[in-house]
């Protein structure tokens, strides 16, 4: 469970977060949707403890992210927007490195790495150096690194940006599987179709605040619009900064 309560963050004279409060529950896929510059990345970084909010707080499984960043990181998997891989290391070595960062070692580490290799169906590439990996293979390594410690919460910042259809499908299947396991999945996007298709709960952000939230259907009903895209445009009041 991830919660933000009154998060505020300014970069000099830009107010990126302006009292942001929402919940992302276990067993649900929650989408943070907003136009460019709405504050989505700043919000996710505050939850992960990479950014210190000026006021307000974020909690992960009821643990304050600013007070106990290490404990919070153990409970979160981060799927990065860029898959920075060391080309000389194998996929297995990459995953093992992240497992070690999360405090796993010896047999527990080996078992965790093997489990995630099986889960993501990557046995055929596990012992290859990552130099020359395709985009889909690189994505699997990044996903494996994010979930090797079996975090209760998964955070993804614009996960499907730049991914091809096959990689996007693998990613979605994993998100559904984690939801079935009762985990909390929070991802940011400004791609409406993706959010409407994937999310149980949508938080629409504008200028660092929650403008509206609910299921895609609830947001359509509330605005009297048949399509989620029309509902979104109605709710944020402009089409600027939106990707269809
Ligand atoms: N390091 C920084 N220094 C100065 N301004 C920043 C910094 N990071 C973000 N901002 C500003 O804060 C605001 C929110 O940015 P943020 O990246 O959180 O939004 P976003 O919703 O993730 O945007 P996008 O969809 O374009 O990725 C923007 O106006 C941005 O220019």
TrEMBL record:
<protein>
    <submittedName>
        <fullName>ATP-binding cassette domain-containing protein</fullName>
    </submittedName>
</protein>
<dbReference type="InterPro" id="IPR017871">
    <property type="entry name" value="ABC_transporter-like_CS"/>
</dbReference>
<dbReference type="InterPro" id="IPR027417">
    <property type="entry name" value="P-loop_NTPase"/>
</dbReference>
<dbReference type="InterPro" id="IPR003439">
    <property type="entry name" value="ABC_transporter-like_ATP-bd"/>
</dbReference>
<dbReference type="InterPro" id="IPR050763">
    <property type="entry name" value="ABC_transporter_ATP-binding"/>
</dbReference>
<dbReference type="InterPro" id="IPR003593">
    <property type="entry name" value="AAA+_ATPase"/>
</dbReference>
<comment type="similarity">
    <text>Belongs to the ABC transporter superfamily.</text>
</comment>
<dbReference type="Pfam" id="PF00005">
    <property type="entry name" value="ABC_tran"/>
</dbReference>
<keyword id="KW-0813">Transport</keyword>
<dbReference type="GO" id="GO:0005524">
    <property type="term" value="F:ATP binding"/>
</dbReference>
<keyword id="KW-0536">Nodulation</keyword>
<feature type="domain" description="ABC transporter">
    <location>
        <begin position="2"/>
        <end position="232"/>
    </location>
</feature>
<dbReference type="GO" id="GO:0016887">
    <property type="term" value="F:ATP hydrolysis activity"/>
</dbReference>
<keyword id="KW-0547">Nucleotide-binding</keyword>
<keyword id="KW-0067">ATP-binding</keyword>
């Amino acid at each position: 469970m991830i919660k933000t309560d009154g998060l505020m963050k300014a970069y000099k004279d830009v107010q990126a977060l302006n009292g942001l409060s929402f919940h992302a529950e276990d067993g649900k896929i929650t989408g943070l949707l907003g136009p460019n510059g709405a504050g989505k990345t700043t919000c996710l970084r505050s939850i992960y403890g990479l950014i210190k909010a000026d006021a307000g707080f974020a909690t992960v499984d009821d643990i304050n992210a600013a007070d106990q960043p290490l404990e919070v990181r153990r409970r979160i998997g981060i799927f990065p927007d860029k898959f920075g891989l060391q080309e000389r290391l194998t996929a297995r070595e990459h995953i093992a490195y992240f497992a070690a960062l999360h405090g796993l070692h010896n047999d527990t580490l080996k078992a965790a790495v093997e489990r995630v290799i099986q889960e993501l169906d990557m046995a055929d590439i596990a012992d290859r150096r990552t130099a020359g990996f395709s985009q889909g293979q690189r994505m699997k390594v990044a996903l494996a690194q994010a979930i090797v410690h079996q975090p209760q919460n998964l955070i993804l910042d614009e996960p499907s940006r730049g991914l091809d259809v096959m990689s996007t499908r693998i990613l979605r299947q994993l998100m559904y599987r984690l939801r079935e396991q009762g985990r909390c999945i929070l991802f940011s996007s400004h791609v409406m179709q993706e959010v409407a298709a994937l999310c149980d709960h949508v938080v629409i952000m504008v200028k660092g605040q929650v403008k509206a939230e609910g299921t895609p259907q609830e947001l359509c009903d509330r605005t009297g619009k048949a399509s989620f895209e029309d509902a979104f445009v109605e709710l944020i009041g402009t089409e600027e900064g939106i990707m269809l």
